[in-house]
Amino acid sequence: MAKDTPREHRLLHMAAAASVLTALMLIAAKTVAWLLTGSVSLLASLVDSVMDSLASLINFFAIRYSLVPADNEHRFGHGKAEALAGLGQALFIAASSLFLIHQSVLKLLEPSPIEQSGVGIAVMVFSIVLTFGLLLIQKYVVRETGSTAIEADSLHYLSDLAVNVGIIAVLALSQLGWLWLDGSVGLVIAIFILFSAWRIAWDACQLLLDREMPDDVRTRIAAIVSSHPQALGFHDLRTRQSGRTSFIQLHVDLDETLTLRQAHTLVCQIQDDIVSAFPNADVIIHQDPVAVGDRVPVEGD
């Protein structure tokens, strides 16, 4: 089984810790701003940050567990802990959205002026800068490790940027008498958060259900097998993702007159090429003997 490198471990720990620290800093700043302004939009952003912190903590421990090497009881490793973390995030996020919908409706029914909007705007600008810095870190870590948990966390923080910009507009326009805007934007944010929860939960469930990897992956594998003239074809290709490990299994048709050593050498070459194309892949190839004249078409032909 492919193993994560110490560098990948450090990157994942760094991203998880940065996410937790960012969420805690945003909670502190937004709590002060909400208490001073009474804005339901700011409350929505505060609740979102609280959910972020809980989700980030789940991520932190899930990633640590997912990095534990395979053992006798978990032969395929612990990578699915990341998908479970994503599912946990979705549940927390959905709960927060329902709370925000309730608060937003109350604000729409009884609109009230927003106090000290300048403080709220300053906090939102601070949130945007801090969130953007975290996203840069997460984007780099996802590119280097392919972590599904970090990617799910990053998607949620990315949505926060748009939310924060919207809240700045609400705080500014409320001073012009647009009191209804606060509750309306809060409601929009809540619905958007609920949609994000659904998307994260769907992706996590698909990983837990061992969904096939994208079609372009299968196409690349077919091209790799076809690049070896002695490979007469392949079939029964199965793929799945668990954490950062890709599991790839297939049957390759070989000339029945090849010696065991020749067949083994050829399959090892194909396996090495697949691993080169998909780092951290765990590849299993079964050899099927066929007559030279009975070439079996490659899957997708």
Low-pLDDT residue spans: none
Identify the overall geometry. elongated
Helix content: 55-70%
Distance between the termini: 30 Å
Quote the average pLDDT.
Answer: 80
Portion in beta strands: 5-15%
What fold name stands as the CATH topology of the largest domain? Alpha-lytic protease prodomain-like
**Spatial order of the strands forming the largest sheet:** 1-2-3
Number of strands: 3
CATH class of the largest domain, please? Mainly Alpha
Task: Please explain how this structure is put together.
The chain is built from eight helices and three strands; from the N terminus they run H-H-H-H-H-H-H-E-E-H-E. The longest helix is centred in the N-terminal third of the chain and has 32 residues, at 6-37. It folds into two domains: 6-208, Cation efflux protein transmembrane domain (Alpha-lytic protease prodomain-like, Up-down Bundle); 215-290, Alpha-Beta Plaits (2-Layer Sandwich). Strands 1-2-3 form a three-stranded mixed β-sheet, covered by helices on one side. It is elongated, with a radius of gyration of 25 Å. It has helices at 6-37, 40-66, 81-109, 117-145, 148-174, 180-208, 215-226, 260-277; strands at 231-242, 245-255, 281-290. The relative contact order is 0.14. The chain crosses the membrane at residues 12-36, 42-62, 83-105, 117-137, 157-178, 184-202. This is Cation-efflux pump FieF.
